[in-house]
Amino acid sequence: MEKRYEENAYVxxxxxxxxxxxxxTGRAGYRAGALIQCVGEEFFTVLEALVKETLMLxxxxxxxxxxxxxEEVTYIIGRIGYEELTAAARAELPSVITKxxxxxxxxFVNFFNTARAITPRMHALELVPGIGKKxxxxxxxxxxxxxxxxxxxxxxxxxxxNPVKLITKRVLEELEGDSKYRLFxxxx
Length: 188
Description:
Layout: E1 8-15, E2 35-40, E3 46-51, E4 62-64, E5 73-79, H1 87-103, H2 105-114, E6 117-119, E7 122-123, H3 133-145, H4 151-158, H5 163-175
Antiparallel strand pairs: 1-2, 1-4, 2-3, 3-5, 6-7
């Protein structure tokens, strides 16, 4: 299977002077300069990247981090863990994840339409904070009648409180390393 990478990411924090004590390891031609901490749009991969000189980015900016020619980013330093995020990046993370979830509504609604049992006693839907057996059965019964078309449709038909907020909470739990199962993120 071909390995897939993030194409776009959202800036969580812009560090114009890099991180204290940061030295790019053994690579010729790199400057320790401005860097960003960002989160990918597809797999919620948390990355650190060097930014092109003279460029100013702000939290929430969308940048291309794919394999082709990049406008804002010169080099992807690599993946980082939640604990390596700056305080500002951690503070920005919930609102950026919320934005991504809203932008990818179709994909997440499809998750509610297709989620399956993980073990004989646990359903993937139950891994979403706020969804217990009661909501799980409401979602399953309603989607059998007709697939959900939007977050609004999902909320109306199941009385599920704010799906965007629940998914955001789940993504944060996965990024913080608090979950055995991953629904929306990749393992470090």
